[in-house]
Design a protein that fits this description.
150 residues, alpha+beta, Immunoglobulin-like, 2 domains, three-stranded antiparallel beta sheet, 21% helix, elongated, transmembrane helix
């Protein structure tokens, strides 16, 4: 091509060799409908993310830890929840020197209690302990309630 606009406008390309020349622009109603659908989808994703990642209904904070033997650590923690009359479960863990998890334990938090202590056994010498997380979904093997009879 020489760069001359007159010559370039006369060149015709073989049919089917280079694909289609392009599509017609999208109609205005279709563009509005797709924009609205995109906004609804973004709003739904935002709602789900906020529900899962927003303020949690139950929170725990380690208040103290101390050695309880060569391979165990005692942790004391406080639980704050939006429903104090509801039982919960917290997972606490011991960490060894390299930062990896040396031991883990599920602790039942009975209704009405907020400060608990427990001893965690570790696979190595623990250097710290922390609360991994808490939930209202208490597993049946930790529950103090009698199982339903059939």
């Amino acid at each position: 091509m020489s760069g001359d606009p007159v010559l370039e406008s006369r060149v015709t390309l073989p049919d089917g060799r280079y694909g289609s020349r392009g599509r017609a622009p999208m109609s205005r109603p279709r563009r509005w409908a797709l924009t609205g659908a995109g906004l609804l989808l973004a709003g739904g994703i935002t709602f789900v993310a906020y529900s899962n990642l927003g303020n949690s209904p139950i929170d725990a904070e380690r208040t103290a830890f101390s050695p309880a033997g060569p391979d165990s650590v005692k942790i004391t923690f406080t639980v704050t929840r939006d429903e104090p009359g509801k039982a919960a479960v917290c997972v606490v863990r011991a960490r060894v020197r390299d930062g990896s998890e040396g031991g883990r334990k599920e602790v039942l938090v009975p209704a009405g209690e907020s400060t608990l202590s427990t001893v965690i056994k570790s696979s190595g010498e623990p250097v710290t302990a922390d609360v991994y997380g808490c939930s209202y979904q208490v597993p049946p093997y930790l529950s103090t309630e009698a199982p339903p009879t059939e």
